[in-house]
From TrEMBL:
The keyword NAD does not apply. It comes from Herbaspirillum rhizosphaerae. Belongs to the zinc-containing alcohol dehydrogenase family. Quinone oxidoreductase subfamily. PANTHER family: QUINONE OXIDOREDUCTASE. The keyword Nuclease does not apply. This is Zinc-type alcohol dehydrogenase-like protein. Keywords: Metal-binding, NADP, Oxidoreductase, Zinc.
Amino acid sequence: MKAVAIKRYLPIDNPESLLDVELPRPTPQGRDLLVAVKAIAVNPVDTKVRAPKDKVEDTPRVLGWDAAGIVEAVGSEVAGFKVGDKVFYAGDITRPGSNSEFQLIDERIVGHAPASLAMEEAAALPLTAITAWEALFERLRVPRKAAAGKASSILIIGGAGGVGSIAIQLAAKVVGLNVIATASRPESEKWVRELGAQQVINHFGDMSAQLKALGIENVEHVLILNDTDKHFPAAAQIVAPQGTIATIVENSGPLDVSLLKAKSAGFVWEFMFTRSMFQTPDMAEQGKLLDEIAHLIDQGVIKTTVSKVLSPINAANLRQAHADLEGGRVIGKIVLKDF
């Protein structure tokens, strides 16, 4: 089967950073689905895993953690899917990724793809939707239904990126929170407002002062999607007493959590691969939430966040997508379709 893989960890402008390869087609066992991949999306995790390091792979390593496709075959223990089903999923970082014609994936972390979307539109959703959903409802513990007349506020730092684009929609359109998003350019401000953000501030400026200028002293929830080291002190200042800060971005230095003590405020991580990595007892919750996302899409409550589509799926186009992401100015999601 065709695949795009890495053998050495190189800068993205090196033509050998991502390679077109031929690999054996895998066979499903147990709870695995064999999916014929039709479209993939690219995420910051792809660029971070591929980033230059002193390491050489003995066999080609396939990256990619966002896909939509069709079930080609099923393992003997599969109960929720059949051959021919259209599916979407983010996958498992401990297993070969989605940048290949066929992929094995545990059925528990797979959802039925939205009926109303093309494959490339569906492929843009899984990783960001799972991350945003878990961050809001499981880490920040935002109630699924806001109390009448008591809508709380959330500050989403890095609102125009992939996760932010879904988090804004879930917070504003599903829960009814007052959503403040950060954006630093006119086009990204326009994007987050269209998704449902009621107020927009610039994360390169003094966020606390900007909020006060809007008449907002504190917010109950803060979601950091960009540079935890830089934004944590401001988040600690902005979060309300007994509020919570969540982040998805690894820190490079110590974070002073003592800043939260006086407020009895919380700090929590969201990492969407935790369930599959540790085979947690609630691993199937990811498949269920993807089905809920598909329902919200098909009902027109939220929308996919594709901003760019490349074709076909090959090393040259993936290198371009990685380079775009590393440039730090991508709005929404970059998707590739068709081998």
